[in-house]
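Escalated from tier 1: uracil holo job.
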Amino acid sequence: MTTELETIRQKVIKCTKCDLCQTRKNSVPGKGNFQSDVIFVGEAPGRNEDQQGEPFVGIAGKRLTLALENAGISRDSIYITNVVKCRPPNNRVPSVLERNTCSEYLQKEIFIIKPKIICILGNTAFNSILGGSEITKYRGKIVRKDEQIYFLTVHPAATIYNQELVNILKSDISKLFKTIRELKDNKQVKIDIEYTS
Ligand code: URA
Ligand code: SF4
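Tier 2 regenerated the structure:
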């Protein structure tokens, strides 16, 4: 890991900038390959993540791992993080204040890693990063904003209760890595949504 990412990691571990620090067991910094072409961004840690201090290690994480493996991608080769780094009590959706207070860490992770694509997992990340909503309507789409490319898909946890979404997540993740290969080959990639800011 670069020293810069290690510095952020240490800051997240000790962070007390918002109230979530009072109820967490462990902060959950991002984890993975700092040279990854893609950063996956979820919502916030759940119970297993809070206990272990690592992102996506519970049931949702298993779903994500399966979708990655289906596309021939190992977890170790990518970087995974969350909008908010500490678990909200009872897994409630993190508040706008919590998200805004925590956002400097995600911004720094993105700045250091400079991924070709940011893969947004579910509505909270979609809303926090792009101001969007209704991820099921926009999933599978490629977005560009301020020169950064994003890919939208459903949250892996949503596939637990909705069998249809299992295949949707799989096909989206396959499309994501096909797109990454095209970007690396300097091929034209079709942008579905262009955000102007
Ligand atoms: N759900 C998330 O959004 N992130 C995790 O790390 C685990 C579950
Ligand atoms: Fe700090 Fe983010 Fe945890 Fe709040 S959620 S205490 S801002 S690391």
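The first strand starts at residue 31 and ends at 32.
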